[in-house]
Amino acid sequence: MAMTHSASSSRDSRKRRSVSHTITEAVTVVVSCPLRGTAICIALVALAMTFGGGGTSNPQNEMILQFLTAVLVIPLVASRHWQSGLGPINPSAWLLAGLCLLMPVLHLIPLPPSIWQSLPGRAIEVQSLATAQAGQRWMPLTMAPARTFASLLAMICPVLLMLQVSRLSIHGRNWICATIVLIAILSMLLGALQLSHTGGWTWSLYTDFSEGFLVGFQANRNAEADILLIAALAYGVLLTTRLAGPKPSAANWAALVLGIAAFLVAVFMTGSRTGIALVLPTLIVLSVMLWPLLRLKRSFVFAVCGALAIVLVSGALLAELHAVQKVVSRFTLKGELRWEIWADTNFAIKQVWPYGSGIGTIRPMLEAAERLEEVTERYPVRAHNDWLEWTMEAGVPGLIVLGAVAFVLFAMIVRAIAPARVNGSDRARMAQILFAIGAFVIVALHSVVDYPLRCMSVAALAAVAAAFLIKPPALQQNRPFYTAMEPLDPLLR
Q1: CA dist., res. 340 & res. 80, Å (int)
Q2: Is the peptide bond before 59 cis (omega within 30 degrees of 0)?
Q3: Would you tell me how many other CB atoms lie within 10 Å of the CB of residue 410?
Q4: Residues 22 and 95 in one domain
Q5: Does any domain span residue 129?
Q6: What is the span of the domain harbouring residue 3?
Q7: Mean pLDDT lowest for which of 256-265, 302-311, 475-484?
Q8: Based on the domain organization, do 24 and 40 belong to the same domain?
Q9: Residue 23 domain-assigned?
Q10: Residue 159: phi, psi to the nearest 5?
């Protein structure tokens, strides 16, 4: 009887432990959901990546994004109830936000006639206003106030996103990485429909887009390539956290290789030549991110070589596909118009140097500077070199502000890397810093031949990268995310 009673008690004890373990797992799932402030940041990133890809040719979607961003930010400002999961805003974030908005704000300030009429490139405007007997009107520095104001509204969205994401803990920032990866995957699925023309539809959110290529939620193939490359870095951050355990499984490494391969194939199908070239620096950053986690480094090198061999063989087999041939055919300089656009931009810079023409004025300035022998039915929208375009729009003051932004970002990187390297166990924090560095490298290099930051989706991811460089709030950083379970522990024992 005693043995029977003992066996029965043992079974009951195991049963109670099993129930307790089940309840613990259920509570963990519930508690692990993002808090309200984190959820709002997730929504802001998802909306920016989904509706921010229209660019200059599709302003309607940007207006939708601006409205939805304002609606989501209102609860954060109006009530502390919605700020759970968010810490205070770091002074570095305020400084960076102010620098980003400084030039368009300055360009919209009205100036007395004695000042604005003496600015270079204003002779025609002065004559026109004098003819209309309005020569003594106060005017801003920008030559197109409406375009500058529209640019200011577009810049406010990523700035607000940066301020809010900078308030997140390390765990909260991993939620942002997961969001970036999820939206990128959905964008790739949409891109597959675009390439297949399923149902005879183009499957694009925009009327003006890079038709025939994988663009997903973007209108421009170059922007989609940048989105996918940055998403690959975000995927690396998530897997770094996953692989940092005592013994990562082979399934985790397989997920890493297959996931990165999927992103790289999608980048190729965008047809963005520079985007494809930027695969190399992206892989370098990913390698730096994952290298400390490798225990069998030689085996990993062999695995990478094998994976590259598989990619090359697969590429050779798929080379006959029309979509692949269309991408390959783009790797030529025949009919390249960037050289002429850059020449016209340089001419426009000289006309308004050293004060610039105003943020967002690139199109009217290029139309005025376009040489007659280069005039075609297609009008230039951008300079296809964001460094040149910013120089023309902002002049010397803009270059000074740009240098200040670069200095602040560099200082943030230095301040972020030093403690992360000392605390070697903080792999997630170091991975997020490398994500930010990689994102800035992608954007900076692509800006030489394109205008990635003029796309609100890419600008939003650049804002996320800047926020990741800011030290997570101390209370959020030191307090585990699951501590909300502690009051339940006595009940579960």
Answers
A1: 53
A2: no
A3: 12
A4: no
A5: no
A6: 1-31
A7: 475-484
A8: no
A9: yes
A10: -65, -45
Q: What distances in angstroms separate CA 18 from CA 8, 11, 14, 15, 27, one per listed residue?
A: 15, 10, 6, 5, 14
Distance CA 101, CA 96 (A): 9
Amino acid at 235: Y
Residues 14 and 106 in one domain: no
Place of tokens 């613990």: 24
For the chain, what is the mean pLDDT?
80
Reported residue count of the chain is: 493
Name the packing angle between helices 279-290 and 427-446 (round to 10°): 170
Encoded amino acid at 399, one letter: L
Q: What is the number of structural domains in the chain?
A: 2
Q: Which two tokens stand for residue 55?
A: 């660019």
For 226, phi and psi rounded to 5 degrees?
Answer: -65, -40
Instruction: Write out the two tokens for 111.
Output: 């100036």
- CA 393 – CA 359 distance, rounded (Å): 5
0.90 surpassed by pTM: no
* Two tokens, residue 47: 């909306």
The tokens for 238 are 């998530």
Instruction: Express each pLDDT in 290-334 by its tens digit.
Output: 877 765 555 556 656 666 666 666 666 555 555 565 565 555 666
Residue 184: closest CA among 461, 466, 465:
461
